[in-house]
Amino acid sequence: MQGMTGLLVYIKKEVPMDAFTFYNPTKIVFGKDCVNQLGQELARYGQTVLLTYGGGSIKKNGIYEAVMAQLKAAGKTVVELSGIMSNPRMEKVQEGADLCRKHKVDFVLAVGGGSVIDCSKFIAGVAKTAPDYDWWEHMFMKRENVTDALPIGVVLTMSATGSEMNNRGVVTNWEFQKKMGGFGDALFPQFSFLDPTYTYTMPQEQLVNGICDMLSHLMEQYFSLPETNNLSDALIEAAFKNIMENANIAVKNPTDYEARSNLMWGATIALNGIMGLGKKQDWMAHQIEHSLSAFHDIAHGAGLAIVHPMLLRYIYKNHVARFVRFATHVWGLQRSDYESDEALALAGIETLRAYFKSLGAPTTLTEVGIPAEDLPAIAEKSNRYPTSYTNFTTEDILNIYKSAL
Ligand code: NZQ
Ligand code: ZN
């Protein structure tokens, strides 16, 4: 690691809490069997519903039948779009938008995890544009605010992304090897149904990916300016510990209702906009991960488990006080056990990495089959922008990837 932080630009830490406007209109209906209220909720919306889902898990675990019963009870006309893949691709968005236009769809109901929800958000947005509109360019490359979309609703089956209560989504352009985030005021789900029992059937690997993702969301907000005492940092630390506590239970007992409940709500609140209020929020681990997924189609949470600790290791020397706080408040490490603040700060990061490993997440690129020779091209394509902590160059990103081999 020596010398690797030399490229980073040090940024002054004394900045006040950011001014903000907070808006989140998504209605959350939470609890076992809450989907029994879906028909009633749908009654407020139009006749034709596009039902979107993934590769078929909802047909194996009974969620499809439960949702169809509600759609039937509400007397809806249902058009289906199945096969939304993880790391959803732009062709799937286009397919869904074409279906909406063809069937004059009034409402999009997403049943699944982050991939299904994200894809559905952009289906809803693209459906409102002219057929020849270059939506990839406008919504993703230029990141224009999507201000018009069909209304969408969610039945969540996986705790991870927080997409169920935010206005953003991530779509991959496989041809250009770009995985990009877009957003829009019109993309907030109208409602999201969160039944923790729906997550019981998540494969262990996805459970772990989801945990790494939600913790990463908290860290993206925590490791940014301001570093002065603020409520957001305290909330993040509490949520971080609560998620770990419940994750430790859920990985051993997948049907523990309390643990699943806390994880489901924990994932939602980690990225519904509340946690980072007043903070700048850097989100660079996500940019660095998205580029890996755009080249090698790896699971988002797995990519984060690999790169996020390495990114923190790369930058901690310029923000020792913040990393000392992470080590002590989150991991309970004691200053007296380390010879310097820097050693304590580093120990906190190493504990994070060991925690991901203990869950069964990958912590090296080699484990997910990404070879060293691909890294320069991946680093070149990674999105970057000036952040509150550091301004990354391609070389910095490449260094982080190399340290994760
Ligand atoms: O496709 P099916 O058959 O449904 O299986 C899915 C999929 O294979 C399975 N699964 C989900 N719920 C299940 C289940 N299997 C059994 N039982 C259940 N109850 O899990 C697999 C992964 O699903 P996916 O939706 O891809 O996972 P996740 O929720 O982690 O979403 C990942 C996507 O969200 C984006 C990521 O980049 C990635 O594309 N993100 C979206 C964000 C947002 N909108 O705010 C923020 C995140 O940082 C993230 O970038
Ligand atoms: Zn994420």
TrEMBL record:
<feature type="domain" description="Alcohol dehydrogenase iron-type/glycerol dehydrogenase GldA">
    <location>
        <begin position="25"/>
        <end position="196"/>
    </location>
</feature>
<dbReference type="Pfam" id="PF25137">
    <property type="entry name" value="ADH_Fe_C"/>
</dbReference>
<dbReference type="Pfam" id="PF00465">
    <property type="entry name" value="Fe-ADH"/>
</dbReference>
<keyword id="KW-0560">Oxidoreductase</keyword>
<dbReference type="GO" id="GO:1990002">
    <property type="term" value="F:methylglyoxal reductase (NADPH) (acetol producing) activity"/>
</dbReference>
<dbReference type="GO" id="GO:0008106">
    <property type="term" value="F:alcohol dehydrogenase (NADP+) activity"/>
</dbReference>
<feature type="domain" description="Fe-containing alcohol dehydrogenase-like C-terminal">
    <location>
        <begin position="210"/>
        <end position="405"/>
    </location>
</feature>
<dbReference type="InterPro" id="IPR018211">
    <property type="entry name" value="ADH_Fe_CS"/>
</dbReference>
<dbReference type="GO" id="GO:0046872">
    <property type="term" value="F:metal ion binding"/>
</dbReference>
<dbReference type="GO" id="GO:0005829">
    <property type="term" value="C:cytosol"/>
</dbReference>
<dbReference type="GO" id="GO:1990362">
    <property type="term" value="F:butanol dehydrogenase (NAD+) activity"/>
</dbReference>
<dbReference type="InterPro" id="IPR044731">
    <property type="entry name" value="BDH-like"/>
</dbReference>
<dbReference type="InterPro" id="IPR001670">
    <property type="entry name" value="ADH_Fe/GldA"/>
</dbReference>
<protein>
    <submittedName>
        <fullName>NADH-dependent butanol dehydrogenase A</fullName>
        <ecNumber>1.1.1.-</ecNumber>
    </submittedName>
</protein>
<dbReference type="InterPro" id="IPR056798">
    <property type="entry name" value="ADH_Fe_C"/>
</dbReference>
